[in-house]
Design brief:
Aminopeptidase; seven-stranded mixed β-sheet
Length: about 160
């Protein structure tokens, strides 16, 4: 089931995200987040932006959210999105359900463009976003540094007309 995030979800969400911090180049964060840090992030985003979890039998298997892409007023209708799944929950259509819900909610808040910033070597995420209508709009060479190497980042955009 997809539902609105709650502050109490912070521990499970941190566990999902910390796997990506510690084991992958999907995120460029280098330090695992505590329950408190994740709870603060959830509260900061979910009070004004769409933020959802996918839950089965009390266990969160994935989450997604949108937040303003930039601070300037000219970007007010552009949001950046994030979506993360439990490492054991991939390939079960959970990501598709989450992103469809997120896109639907972003349309309701009069969003015009969604941006997904993806590490260039994250081929699974790239294919996923392309399948859901996103188009590559930029490529930045060696802008991230993690695990002792430089990484490229691509931006993907979905426009609502």
């Amino acid at each position: 089931m997809i539902r609105q995030v709650k502050a109490e979800d912070a521990a499970q969400i941190a566990s999902i995200y910390n796997h990506y911090i510690n084991e992958t180049t999907v995120t460029f964060e280098n330090e695992a987040l505590s329950y408190r840090e994740m709870k603060d992030r959830i509260n900061a985003i979910s009070t004004s932006c769409p933020y959802f979890v996918y839950e089965e039998n009390g266990t969160i298997l994935g989450y997604c959210y949108a937040h303003p892409w930039k601070e300037r007023a000219a970007y007010a209708k552009t949001y950046e999105i994030s979506i993360y799944l439990d490492k054991n929950a991939t390939g079960k259509n959970i990501g598709t359900k989450l992103i469809q819900k997120l896109i639907e909610e972003c349309k309701k808040i009069n969003c015009h463009a969604l941006i997904a910033c993806i590490t260039a070597e994250n081929e699974g995420s790239i294919r996923f976003h392309l399948r859901h209508g996103f188009k590559q709009v930029s490529s930045f060479k060696e802008v991230g540094y993690k695990f002792n190497r430089y990484l490229d980042v691509n931006d993907y955009e979905l426009l609502f007309h």
